[in-house]
Design goal:
Strand content: 25-35%
Strand order of the largest sheet: 1-4-3-2
CATH superfamily: RelE-like
CATH architecture: 2-Layer Sandwich
Distance between the termini: 31 Å
Organism: Gordonibacter massiliensis
Helix content: 25-40%
Number of helices: 3
Protein name: Sirohydrochlorin cobaltochelatase
Radius of gyration: 12 Å
CATH topology: YaeB-like fold
CATH class: Alpha Beta
Number of strands: 4
């Protein structure tokens, strides 16, 4: 299992989630990412790739994309942010 690292932005984004149901789905997906680093899709909108760089992946957790970067050579996953799907282009 890769080591998980959480960006400050992700912590702020998660704190702003008001729906317990959405928050639980986010936490479940974090567990999946921890178990299977390549769980998410590498097919991300250009705006996400521009902001977070190469290796970025996403998991859809409506209404957000849970954005993380996989560093397989370091056995590390860095959870970057929650991006509202309407904001991604």
């Amino acid at each position: 299992m890769p080591r998980m690292e959480y960006a400050e932005r992700f912590a702020d984004d998660l704190a702003s989630v008001t729906s317990p149901k959405v928050e639980n789905r986010i936490l479940e997906n974090l567990d999946n990412i921890e178990r299977f680093g390549e769980f998410g899709s590498s097919m991300v909108p250009a705006s996400i790739k521009e902001e977070f760089g190469e290796g970025v992946r996403k998991v859809a957790v409506n209404p957000f994309d849970l954005v993380y970067t996989l560093y397989p050579e370091q056995d590390l996953v860095r959870v970057e942010a929650l991006v509202h799907q309407r904001a991604a282009r």
